Protein: RRM domain-containing protein
Amino acid sequence: MANTVNVTGISASTTEAQLNDFFTFCGQISSIDYEEKSGKATIAFEKATAAKTALMLNGGTLDGATLTVTSDVVHQDDSDPLPQGHDTEHVKQEDKPRAGIAAEYLAKGYQLSDNILARAIELDQQKGISKKFLDYVQHLDKTIGERALGPDQTVSGKAQQTVESAHQQAEQKGYVKAFRDYYTRALATPIGQKVREFYTTTSKQIHDIQEEARRIATEEKAKQGGSGATPVPPVST
Structure:
């Protein structure tokens, strides 16, 4: 299959479920052909973009083992526009910026080297942020702004100190659905400008990815009823 990557160096203790959990951050997986005895796997994705993201993880660590991720073909990013009438409540994993995907890995406790984080930044700089993702963020910005602040208002165009109270007003008005995922919640808080800039620009540093990982971990812990930030493991070089 065209959208496949080859993975070697897998730990003998790693299960197929663990492989799936690790690589599903890249995008929707079609199949995994895993030879446990040899520590090799072929992973097929639905989209070439996801396979290209998986190659970014070459040298990543899973279950204490350093993975080698390669491919026999050159994968191209999906440039298809969003279909008319698309559902923008959620965005597909493979359409996210690579730096954002790297931040999700760190937030979940996976170890990625500085080289991998730099690779993610480089991919975003080379290919730009996908139009699908930019459309998604723009839609959220406008939708949240109009519902919370009034007609023709956007979150990004309003002083952030007013956004938090507007967020609360929107929830009181029954617009909770609009704030059900990380991006909508983050945009509607005082740190929203930083989050928006991180996901919509290609100008990033490694510490920006680490900072975003901490924000994601904090949000996840809050959803689970905890408090404070989940420590993001230090990256190895």
